[in-house]
Each structure stands twice: as structure tokens, then as C-alpha cells.
Design brief:
Blueprint lengths: L2 H7 L24 E3 L2 E3 L5 E5 L6 H14 L3 E3 L17 H14 L2 E5 L6 H7 L2 E4 L7 H7 L6 E4 L6 H13 L5 E5 L17 H8 L4 E3 L1 H5 L5 H10 L4 E5 L17 H32 L3
Parallel strand pairs: 3-4, 3-10, 4-5, 5-6, 6-7, 7-8, 8-9, 9-10
Antiparallel strand pairs: 1-2
Helix pairs in contact: 2-3, 2-10, 5-6, 9-10
The protein binds phosphoenolpyruvate and manganese (II) ion (MN).
Length: 301
């Protein structure tokens, strides 16, 4: 363990590794496994969440749900409440979108992850969602984080686009202190001076978060890349560095998507990506075993 990381994060005792939880006694690294129906996130499986940026219609979502389930996704994503930077952009279908998500769950058995933007919507969205998504723009919405402490659902907490890892863990601690330790961390790219990609995927965030925290860590290659051609390779990178899963945007016809079409994969591209991922997931198993050595090497800094 890099002593710098340890000193920096151990104050967030509900989400960070502390002395008692570093495995010094047992040799086993304690980790939180978030159970969502029959799916374990943060355990030995690599869990893929996939679906459109926004729920646009019943046929769009059902088609996508069937395609991603067939390709190996376990969880369906889709925003019903969308945080759009422009007031003129599509804002999401709201409760109508939630009902469509529920239909897709009934049709495919996929679990549902969907975004919540306001503490006022927490109870309603918790009726429909298996996982409550906190978007990058809401990572510091403390009223929302506190309300999620009592929502009875796991929370997918995305890193703020200008947030440090310390900021991310602080927000996770807020949810945990409010009563909910079932938090999944998500690296989705941060703002840097680089403009060739939408955001800069901080790939090192994954092993650092895995070292300093016992929470599951997933990667969103879609919002990091901003273009679909980069999504498969960033997904493979995520697998190799030890992520516990992915959240990926997929659309039946990306050119017609109402949001984030440029970064959404077609069904065929998603299928191919899942096939190509397999050898890298095998490597991930190896890196899990190597992790204690890697962390020890980090301490030499
Ligand atoms: C999304 O998942 O569609 C989304 C808006 O993500 P982020 O909050 O990471 O921008
Ligand atoms: Mn999106």
C-alpha cells in the first residue's frame, strides 16, 4: 500500500480500507460485494451494464434490452431523468421511462440501473430501479447523497468530471454515513486539457480505488471516449486493470439517438466487444491474484 494513499483516504472509514480491513490479519483482502438480485458486483464476475443513454420509447428499450442480454450484459442501463446541459435538449421521459424500464426487466430478467438527479425523486425511482445511478454532475449533490442513504437500493456513484479520487470517496462516505454502504464507484473520465476525447479516462483510478477502498469499481468507457470507436479498447483496458465491470451505451440506431449517439455502440458492435473482451477478462483473473504484489510495489514510491 502506498502510504500516501493510506494517509489520504483512511478517514473515510466506511468506504476506505482501514487497518482492520486490509487483510493484515487474515491475508484475505476484504471487499464489499454488492448483491443485485442474483448478480454479485465486486466479486469474481465481471458485470456488464449496457443500454441506451436515454429511454426513448418502448420498442427502442425492449429491442436494446434483448440484444444486450443476449450478448452477455446482466444489467440494463437507460436514463428516464436526464441531466442535460442545454434546456433545449431531450430531458427524458420521466415516470413513463421508468415504466418502460420495468417492462424491459420483466421481458428479459435484466436488472435495471437508472439515474436519479433529485432527492425528491428518490422514492419513486427506487420503486423501479435495482441500482440508483448518481451522475457526474450530481456527485456533490449532498441532499441527494443523503437521501440515498435510506433508499434501500445500491448506488452507482459516478466520479464528478472535476473530482479527485478523494472527492469521490468523500461522497461515497456521505452515502454510507447516511445508512447505505452498498456503493459502486464508477470512473467515467475527467476533464483535462485534452480535447480529442470527450473526457480523459483516468485508467489508474481503477487500481488506486481498488487499493484504497473495498467498494466495487466499474468503468464507463462511453462517456470517457465520446466516440464509439474507442469504447471497445477502453473496455479491454478496464478489464485488464482490474475493474469489476462496465457501463456501456448501446442503441439500435445510434445516428438517431436523442442523446449520446456518437458514443453509443450498435448491437453488432456491442456483441463483438463482448466477444473480444473474454481473453482480457482471463488476464484480469491473473491480475487479481497479482494485486497484492502490485500494491506492495506501489508502496516503494
Ligand atoms: C449517462 O450515464 O448517460 C450520464 C449522463 O453519465 P455521466 O453522469 O457520467 O455524464
Ligand atoms: Mn449518456
Amino acid at each position: 500500500m502506498n502510504p500516501k494513499w493510506n494517509g489520504q483516504f483512511s478517514c473515510f472509514d466506511l468506504v476506505a480500507r482501514t487497518k482492520e480491513k486490509t487483510g493484515e490479519k487474515t491475508g484475505e483482502q476484504f471487499r464489499t460485494i454488492v448483491q443485485v438480485r442474483d448478480i454479485e458486483i465486486g466479486g469474481n464476475d465481471f458485470v456488464v451494464m449496457a443500454g441506451p443513454c436515454a429511454v426513448e420509447s418502448e420498442s427502442q428499450l425492449l429491442q436494446t434490452a434483448e440484444a444486450v442480454a443476449k450478448a452477455g450484459a446482466r444489467i440494463l442501463r437507460g436514463g428516464a431523468y436526464k441531466p442535460r446541459s442545454s434546456p433545449y435538449a431531450f430531458q427524458g421521459l420521466g415516470v413513463e421511462g421508468l415504466k418502460i424500464l420495468r417492462k424491459a426487466r420483466e421481458a428479459t430478467g435484466l436488472a435495471i440501473v437508472t439515474e436519479v438527479m433529485s432527492e425528491q425523486d428518490v422514492d419513486l425511482i427506487a420503486e423501479y430501479a435495482d441500482i440508483m445511478q448518481v451522475g457526474t454532475r450530481s456527485m456533490e449533490n449532498y441532499a441527494l447523497l443523503e437521501a440515498l442513504g435510506q433508499c434501500g437500493r445500491p448506488v452507482l456513484l459516478k466520479r464528478g468530471m472535476t473530482a479527485t479520487l478523494e472527492d469521490l470517496l468523500r461522497s461515497a462516505q456521505v452515502i454510507a454515513v447516511a445508512g447505505n454502504a452498498q456503493v459502486i464507484l464508477c470512473e467515467r473520465g475527467i476533464r483535462t486539457f485534452e480535447t480529442a476525447t470527450r473526457n480523459t479516462l483516468d485508467i489508474a483510478a481503477v487500481p488506486v480505488l481498488k487499493a484504497v477502498s473495498h467498494l466495487p469499481v466499474i468503468v464507463d468507457p462511453s462517456h470517457a471516449a465520446g466516440v464509439r470507436s474507442l469504447v471497445p479498447v477502453l473496455s479491454r483496458a478496464a478489464a485488464v486493470v482490474g475493474a469489476d465491470g462496465l457501463i456501456v451505451e448501446v442503441h439500435p440506431c445510434p445516428e438517431q439517438a436523442m442523446s449520446d449517439g456518437n458514443q453509443s455502440l450498435t448491437f453488432a458492435e456491442f456483441r463483438q466487444m463482448m466477444t473480444d473482451l473474454q481473453p482480457y477478462l482471463d488476464l484480469q483473473q491473473e491480475s487479481r491474484q497479482l494485486r497484492p504484489q502490485l500494491l506492495a510495489a506501489g508502496g516503494a514510491d
